[in-house]
Amino acid sequence: MKQKAGSVLSVAITMTLLLLTNNTNAQDNIWSMYQGDANHTGYVPISLKPHNFALRWSIHFGDNKQLNPVVAADGKVFVTKLIYFNDVEQLVALDAMTGTRLWGKSFGSVFSVNPPSYGYGNVYIQTGNHSSDTFLRAYNADTGDLIFKSPHSAQWERYYAPTIYEGKVYINGGSYGGMYSFDAYSGAQDWFLNNLPQYDQWTPSVDANYAYAYLGEYDPGLYVANRLTGEIAFKINDPNFDWNGWSMNLAPMLVGNQVYTIQRGRLVKFDVHEMNISWEIDGNFSGQPSYADGVIYAISSGILTALDAETGDELWLWEAPADNLNSSIVVTDTHIFVGSQSRTYAIDRLTHNEVWTYPQSGHISMSDNALYIASKSGNLTCISYKPFSKPTAVAGGDRIEYEDVLLNAKQSFDPDGYIVSYDWRISRQDGSSAPLILSGETVSVIGLQKGFYDVVLEVTDNDGFSDTDSSVLAVIGPKPQCEYTYEDVSRAYENGYNQGKYDHTASYNKETRRLHIPTVLVDKNEVTFDLRRIGNSHNFKLKNGNTLLKKKSKALVGKNTIDGTQIRAESRITNR
Fold this sequence. Notes:
Oligomer: single chain
CATH superfamily of the largest domain: YVTN repeat-like/Quinoprotein amine dehydrogenase
CATH topology of the largest domain: Methylamine Dehydrogenase, Chain H
């Protein structure tokens, strides 16, 4: 379809509006680029209940072009189409709640229009042709006004979505391979790294120090560049790279100092700190891996596979009931979303069972309280959900106590509901007695033996979500009375009394040098007795208000350690 210069191009859109949830609590900017963020982990930190999933809207774009992965943020969804010299509307902004078209752009008969990214109120995309007529473009997300159009070299290539980090936009580009950095506000080019193998269909991952590119022939490996200067910092070779074309079809996934890639059936873990390959697994892997909480999720032989991120050991598998899995993978705190040729599934992370499915497949994104499925046939489906927040357990922190202990969970909270149960487990670290299992927001434990204990609190909220917190309890024995046999402290009190500093007599035995202070007033100010114990020593302070009357240290034989470990205890006893 041809377009006259200066005219507005539009296409027919068919919309099915089945259920519109009135939920304005959108989560901003949680899916703003390829696989959600600059690390490309595919992780979204939310908790979900499948019974709250509902179709919000579904749109069919009338030109039937395959959709690229979408991004959504700030109440809008940004859609581009996989085209090949097709003069159609190629970039569209939609209202996330209704699916209503807000604005659109056409770039004419270009070779490629690539997936979008979002940041700083702008939408960023690359449009590809040959040589200098390839651009990184930025548009105002609200109005569609052009912010900048920055040229870069190319040679008939397709790209993944730009990676945005700290005011910069990082992209694949170059006539013979390379990587660019542009200013996200002005579009000014920061640098161009041109000595990379020539591949398309990838985007770098970025952290505070580096930009990472995983590329193949003729010098395969993980390229690590200074993100501010573009200079190569180092490279980790991949000697087992198996060429299968000049498109990478993935982005390196960055998890701390580890980078994970999939190439020709292999899942490969690069250690950036050690600058080597930690391990690789040849397991017919395909697509893009995802990550959350120490677990790698990837598709192997069409089956969802969970692997230990540290060792690569297989943890569990899930196989779709009808056909092979082949989509991107999105991971939340409670579920994994993955698709086959015809359906999208939600898998419970705890039970590893399917808990929800929908008869639409494609690229998966999550934002604005919605799951988006961008299909090959030009359908964009929006599934609404209500996120739940997990409760937070607060066990009270590490502490030193006498034999009678009060455990208090009152600082625990649930931001969107209430806590229904508090469960405590108290275990001696030496295993000499059975664990104590108790329930209640506050629980009292009487007569604990001297020693170290692990305290675990688990709270559960009204949505069925739970959280745990742990602490260490050191029990130092029975609680002492306000009676001490310490010579120096006794003398301090005796001297103070003889000098008329106290207006109330305490029990004091000069022969045994035993001091008992039931009630002490000093000019209507309290007298404090501070005991600080470090190893075998006790430090004593007797104060009249803020005036230090005596400070001494004295060894206390027989009460120096707990289970061979020196204890530092601070006890302040005030008598009025």
